[in-house]
User: What shape does this take?
Amino acid sequence: MSEELGLRGIVFFDMGNAFAENESINPADLRFGVGAGLQWFSPFGPILMQLGFPLDALEDEDGSVFEFSFGGSQF
Assistant: This one.
């Protein structure tokens, strides 16, 4: 992407789940997703847009998730 404009492309693989306190953690219950996004280091702080897709979506889940955020960590 363009360093001069403060733009950076992002590609990611994600996995995780949420477990209750009394629930045992089972790696077989992990969920997986992939996606891509664009980060702009604007004069007002970082702005991030991402589109993610579950690799193992359940029937009642959306096929994609769009996220838009301001601020956050710069890595």
Observations:
- The chain has a mean pLDDT of 88.
- The first strand starts at residue 7 and ends at 16.
